[in-house]
Amino acid sequence: MVGCAVTDGIAALDIAPRLPTIELTIKGQPCSLKNSRQMAHNAKTGLWFPVPSKEAKKYLRELSKQVPIREPLLTCRLRVLITIYYASERPDLDESIILDGLQTRIYKNDRQVREKHIYHKIDKANPRAEIVIEPFQGDLLMELSEWDPAPPKSGGAAPRDLNDAIPF
Predict the structure, then answer these.
(1) Is 11 a member of any domain?
(2) What is the torsion angle, in degrees rounded to the nearest 10, for the CA atoms of residue 136, residue 133, residue 70 and residue 15?
(3) Is residue 71 domain-resident?
């Protein structure tokens, strides 16, 4: 795990400020994977299967030129914020090609994304995707919500609320 592991108990609070945040801008307008798939036929099995369109393949090639491979890849659960600037109102808001393209470049698998915030904006002159990737804090928040604020056995007073227990 790369800087994203949440450890047992309150000790997890000590690592929160050091978790990485990655900010990227990818130039070009992403196409919708849902609307741009083509069907191909496997002659051996007789089955049909979806393949990305030429437009999707072109966007993924451009993305790979703009996004260097991060070593080591992130392996933790992630939160992403993506603002897609389209050249017009016509395209559907679809971030799936971006998440697929970042797989094996920034993180190991796009199934690691546990929280997404996706926004659609217009910039006719400069279509692009602005992306923020950060560790998913839900695991940490869940641990805090399960924290028992009972006074310690030594007789000291427990914090009044969870914010009093956070050291940052």
Answers:
(1) no
(2) -40
(3) yes
114 touches 136 (CB < 8 A): yes
d(CA 143, CA 139) in angstroms, rounded, equals: 6
Tell me the pTM.
0.69
Which residues does 69 contact at the CB level (< 8 Å), separation at least 6?
Answer: 104, 105
Please give the structure tokens belonging to residue 27: 């130039």
CATH number at residue 79: 3.30.1330.70
- What's the pLDDT tens digit per position in 50-109? 778 889 999 999 999 999 999 999 999 999 999 999 999 999 899 999 999 999 999 999
Please count the helices (runs of H) and the strands (runs of E) in the chain: 4, 6
Tokens of 151: 């006074």
Residue 25 counted as domain residue? yes
106: tokens are 């920034």
Residues 25-44: tens digit of each pLDDT: 999 999 987 766 678 888 88
- Confidence class for position 2, pLDDT limits 50, 70, 90: very low
Name the nearest CA neighbour of 131 among 116, 141, 143, 142.
116
In a domain, 72, yes or no: yes
Q: How many domains does the chain have?
A: 1
